[in-house]
Amino acid sequence: MTNDKDKLPKSTFLQKKIKLENKKKFLKEDRDFEKEEKKDTKVQYDKRDVTIYVANLNYKRDEDGIKRLFSPFGKVKDVYILTDKKTKLKTGVAFVRMFNKDEAKEAIKKLNGKEVDGRSLKVSIAEDNKDIKSKK
């Protein structure tokens, strides 16, 4: 079986080889640049986010309102408000996920027992994150 190398004149083969090497080099540089760009925009968070249990919320408070309540303490990943399955009404309980355990602890410390919308909040680490509470 013959190679492309055998079919082409040497100068054409070398030109194609150089062109291919330059293309590979360019693509590698482009990938390296993209990696550097991603590194610069990445925000460093703990490997595991923290879920906070919030009870005794005013029924009128929505996800954005809860997010605004917790955002002064750190970045909030998401908010989930529990609703009654039959009536679809809010139960006054929510789960807030935060990226950083220290920020979550600070939010719990400041918001637990605080009166918001005429109700005294009950804020703690959700059951699946009790190991963080034990490390205090």
How is this structure best described in words?
- The protein is an alpha+beta fold and 136 residues long.
- It has 2 domains: 7-41; 50-130, 2-Layer Sandwich (Alpha-Beta Plaits).
- It is 44% helix and 23% strand.
- It contains 5 helices and 6 strands, in the order ααβαββαβββα.
- Strand 2 and strand 3 form a beta hairpin.
Low-confidence stretches: 40-46
CATH superfamily of the largest domain, by name, is RRM (RNA recognition motif) domain
Approximate shape: elongated
What is the averaged pLDDT score? Answer: 79
How would a textbook summarize the main sheet? Answer: 4 strands, antiparallel
In CATH, what is the class of the largest domain?
Answer: Alpha Beta
Order of neighbouring strands in the sheet with most strands: 2-3-1-6
Helix content: 40-55%
Question: Terminal Cα separation, in Å?
Answer: 72 Å
Beta-strand percent range? 15-25%
How many strand elements? 6
What structural category arises from helix and sheet content? alpha+beta
Summarize the structure.
With 136 residues, the chain is an alpha+beta fold.
Topology:
Layout: H1 4-7, H2 10-41, E1 50-55, H3 63-70, E2 76-83, E3 90-98, H4 101-111, E4 115-116, E5 119-120, E6 122-125, H5 130-134
Antiparallel strand pairs: 1-3, 1-6, 2-3, 4-5
